[in-house]
Amino acid sequence: MEIRRMGPIGAEVIGVDVKTMNDAIFGKIYQAWLDSNVICVRDQQLEIDDYLTYSRRFGVVCPHPSKITRHPDYPELTVLGINKFRTDGTLDKEVYRRGAEGFHTDGSYEEVPYKALPQRLKDKLDDKIGTFKYGGRKKLNALLDEADRHIAPVRHPLVQTHPETGRKLLYFDQGKILTIEGVSQAESDAIIDEMVGYFVEPPCQYRHQWRKGDIVIWDNRCSYHKAAGDYPPEEDRIHWRVSIKSH
Length: 247
Fold this sequence. Notes:
Blueprint: E1 2-5, E2 11-14, H1 23-36, E3 38-41, H2 48-56, E4 60-62, E5 78-80, H3 93-96, H4 119-125, E6 129-132, E7 154-157, E8 159-161, E9 168-170, E10 177-180, H5 185-199, E11 215-218, E12 239-241, E13 243-245
Parallel strand pairs: 2-3
Antiparallel strand pairs: 1-2, 3-11, 4-13, 5-12, 6-7, 6-10, 8-9
């Protein structure tokens, strides 16, 4: 097995079969993930059961709240790229561009879920609580069932400590956050808008060029992600995806 760093963020793992690797090999992959935030294991040939078994080595696999894209036989598995055409043949852009509207984190709307910021902004965020909900301030929640759109917001400290690396992290999602508690709505919006710029600037950005057989995992606790949403709608681009919580 070989692990290659791809830059400040990201690492590539080659020469391993995740179906047969032992705990020592997995431990190296896991550490590379913690060190790099994003890792890609190349050239895998997996059935769904193999993929779920590998995913569970990182933590507890949980179904996504969007029920319409869950696999019918494996509810823990989200299938991206399906159901993008309505019954009348028109493109459903909510499905086609899912995850492509902007950089975001997953699960900030759930109960369980820095370094580059200027000191002035760090001081504003220390000890602050954010309120989060699927769809955020723009209420982009069309993929949810109607009953799930009215779940109450949850609260998270914005500045946290990574439970495994001990590094400071900023728990933030521009698309899910509603408010920063303790300040006016106008100041909350201004702080949120300023924070967005720091999250997407190079060199703290990794762009993945997909190949068949890639398995990519990012540390959602301390990194943002975004889909491209730029492929021809008439072509299929099918991905398996799972959401993982810590053990």
